[in-house]
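Below is a filled-in request sheet from our internal design queue. Each sheet records the structural input a requester submitted and the sequence that came back. We keep these sheets so that new team members can see what a complete request looks like end to end.

REQUESTER: design group, bay 2
PRIORITY: normal
MODE: inverse folding
CHAIN LENGTH: 184
BACKBONE (tokenized):
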């Protein structure tokens, strides 16, 4: 049966979705030396609580999961939660580093809203562009999570796309003022 520090290592690997690296484990235990953590992992791999792969990846085995009293359902819930967080983080990074929406993307988004369920051909016909260009615009909108769908079911707005269009800033309609006031 694993000791206290061995159970700590098993818990960290479980919280990481069932796999971690030695570097991650060493950073998780600043009170232990890297050499001690490495010895603990090697010992646990020898006793089949962990698998230590050649590439450096450390994977929790069923024996290790049972040793910390974690059920299969709870373990799967941890993995699902971790994947969800990673997906949200990827979306956040993509949105942060994606350049501002260009006019043609905005026009395409409005057309998809207008058509409710649009194909690439519908979009190209409505916008008077090629299907290749319509495909590029739809892919850009899919990356932003504003549109979902595919060839068979067509493309439609996502809740993010609808909220973007609802909160879209209005184009100013006032007349331009001269930069230098005219004296009369």
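RETURNED SEQUENCE:
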């Amino acid at each position: 049966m694993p000791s206290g520090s061995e159970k700590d290592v098993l818990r960290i690997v479980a919280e990481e979705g069932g796999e971690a690296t030695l570097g991650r484990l060493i950073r998780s235990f600043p009170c232990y030396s890297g050499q001690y953590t490495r010895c603990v992992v090697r010992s646990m791999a020898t006793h089949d609580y962990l698998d230590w792969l050649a590439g450096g990846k450390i994977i929790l085995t069923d024996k290790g999961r049972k040793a910390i009293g974690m059920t299969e359902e709870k373990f799967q819930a941890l993995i699902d939660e971790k994947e969800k967080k990673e997906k949200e983080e990827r979306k956040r990074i993509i949105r942060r580093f994606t350049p501002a929406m260009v006019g043609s993307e905005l026009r395409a988004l409005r057309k998809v809203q207008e058509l409710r369920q649009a194909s690439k051909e519908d979009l190209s016909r409505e916008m008077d562009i090629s299907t290749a260009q319509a495909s590029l615009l739809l892919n850009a909108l899919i990356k932003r999570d504003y549109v979902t769908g595919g060839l068979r079911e067509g493309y439609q707005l996502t809740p993010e796309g609808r909220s973007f269009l609802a909160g879209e800033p209005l184009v100013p309609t006032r007349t331009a003022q001269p930069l230098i006031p005219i004296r009369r």
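SHEET NOTES:
- Residues 169-176 have pLDDT under 50 and may be disordered.
- The first strand starts at residue 19 and ends at 21.
FILED BY: M.R.
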